[in-house]
Every structure is written in C-alpha cells, then in structure tokens.
C-alpha cells in the first residue's frame, strides 16, 4: 500500500506555516508520493518548475489542469497509477462447546448432592 497526496495549487503563496525543506523531509520520511496539479495558466504565478521538483523528489508526478475536464482526467490517471487492492477483513465466528459438558457436570453434581442428602436422612 502506498501513501499518496494530491497537491492542487494555483501557484500563489498564501504564507507558509511549514518551510518547504521541512515539509519535503516529512513527506520522504513517511513514504508519501506527492502528485502535484497546477491549476490555471502558466502566465500567472504558476511555477511549473517548482511543482515538478516536488513531485519528482517524492516519486510522484506533475500534471497541469486548465479546466474541469482536464482535472477529471488527471484524477483518473492518478487512480490508474495508484491502484491497490483492499483486503476484506476476515471474520471468524467462534463457537464454544464447553457449555454442554459443563451443564452435565453441574447436573451430575446436583444429583450426587441429592443422593448424599437422601442417604443421610435414612
């Protein structure tokens, strides 16, 4: 099973809480593949080189989406790249049979006690 992160971005910096090198170190330590998806046109603040670097260093891939249809195809491609089978959990129903001999043992004990009391009365 692989861990995957899809990073959708328009390339604009919104104030980093975690420095880039620290974030990449965490990604590598946890074995996460990052698929970067640049949204919009390259004419804006879109930094394809930076996004390619992120994807390459984590073992992922870079994609460029210009519209909703392209984004849908990108998701489908990532889905094909990261196919993994989910294991069905196996449930085992246990049945305990100790109750039956225990019941007869208890019944025998009661009968034995009854016989002892009966002999004591006679």
Strand content: 15-25%
General shape: rod-shaped
Q: Briefly note the CATH topology name of the domain at 3-81.
A: Rossmann fold
Main pleated-sheet profile: 3 strands, parallel
Task: Give the beta-strand count.
Answer: 3
**CATH homologous superfamily identity of the domain at 3-81:** von Willebrand factor, type A domain
**Roughly what percent helix?**
40-55%
CATH architecture title of the domain at 3-81: 3-Layer(aba) Sandwich
One letter per element, helices H and strands E, the order comes to EHEHEHH
* Average residue-wise pLDDT: 83
> Which blocks of ≥5 consecutive residues have pLDDT under 50?
none
Cα distance, first to last residue?
78 Å
Kindly report the spatial arrangement of strands forming the biggest sheet.
1-2-3
Structural class: alpha/beta
* Radius of gyration, taken over Cα atoms and rounded to an integer in Å: 33 Å
- State the CATH class of the domain at 3-81: Alpha Beta
Supply the number of helical segments: 4
